[in-house]
Amino acid sequence: MKQCKDLEPLVYLSREGELTAEEESLVREHLRTCPHCSSIRASLRTMHNELDPARSVPPSTVNLAEITLARLNGRVRETRSWFDVLLDSARPALAVSVSALVLLLVVQETRDAMKTSALEERLEDRGSASRTWNPLWTVSGIPALQSLAEAQRQDGTDPRPIMAAIGDDQVKAITSILSLIVGSSDDLFVRLSRRYPNLARVTFEDGLTDQERRILATEGQMLLNDLQNMIAQGASQPW
Amino acid sequence: MEQPDQNQAVVSLLVDRSKAGDTSAFGALMTMHQGYAYSIAFRILRSEDQAKDVVQEAFVRIWKHVARYHETAKFTTWLYTIVVRLCYDRMKSEKRRWNLFAREERASQEHEPVSRSLESEVEGRDTVDRILALAKELPPKQRLVFMLRDLQDWTIGEISEMTRMSVGTVKANLCLARKALREAYNELEG
Known about the structure:
Shape of chain A: elongated
Number of helices of chain A: 10
Radius of gyration of chain B: 19 Å
Order of helices and strands of chain B: HHHHHHHHH
Largest interface: A-B, 46 and 51 residues
Helix content of chain B: over 70%
Order of helices and strands of chain A: HHHHHHHHHH
Oligomer: heterodimer
Number of strands of chain B: 0
Distance between the termini of chain A: 47 Å
Low-confidence stretches of chain B: 98-114
Distance between the termini of chain B: 35 Å
């Protein structure tokens, strides 16, 4: 006779049609002599019965077909808040802003890195090289950038260090990924916008104000961190 | 699982007219299916607002892609698959967001174990609410399969078709979900 641990998974598949006839017969035989598995079966039955009230569904108080039709016809979105409507209209702008943000951060970092490097060289002789911390530098933590640069290095096509390796192709790849992300999921867009309300207001048309630079350095960086976490957690189909 | 008795010929006609851009026909198609689509979403998500959002989103997706629909698959199967998929995406997002905030909370509440906070959260609720609260803590795949099977009575084969998981994966997730729920429930009751 098979032991409990072999049969236990089958004991949990307790409802009709979940086991083959052969499995059913094995489990039935086992339950006759195993109080442990019998108690599992009994408590599953109790739990299933306890769930009876949850099987009823309160009727929807609105006509979803009518609301969706209004959406499709371009009329007012009755079930959505003014904030959601506002965000939807700002969506293309945010998509562009996110892409521009990445470009800006990358360009900024490259420029800062070059400046710092020059400064260090100048100061090296005096033995007092110093760096003022700039939050925008932390963008170098973006795994996407690192892996792209790493892939290039491994291919042997570009042996330069990571930052020096950030060229047009990589920037284009990242901006297109971000555009895809922002453009492909309403849910994600709304979540991101709610989490980064200030970022949605940053514009790149007339240069950046000090306030906007602070937003980029804080919320912008948080957004990039969140995106990399979501990509890491979401496996093959994160959105 | 019993599905609403739909007249296949009428559905086909409405789908054809929708493909031609007739929004009135699509409106009728949505009216025919909205109740059932909503009940599926509600039973999975346990939230009226989220269920309504999902159904609307599913309809919008169908409208966008109706031209690609071929009648080799039943329209209802297509619709329910989209609804289930959207529910699953929501659950994953919730879990992901929860993880994100949990990290922040853990930093400030390191001395309070997660199980303790869950225990206090479900304390004092009705049994059914307790089980549903525990189910919410399951990994999204397990939660989805559990909700579809034990709250909606879809067969293993139907769940496999709707979720695009293999039958073995459905069974494995169902088994894990029931085991985790039973153990957590016994612990809270005990």
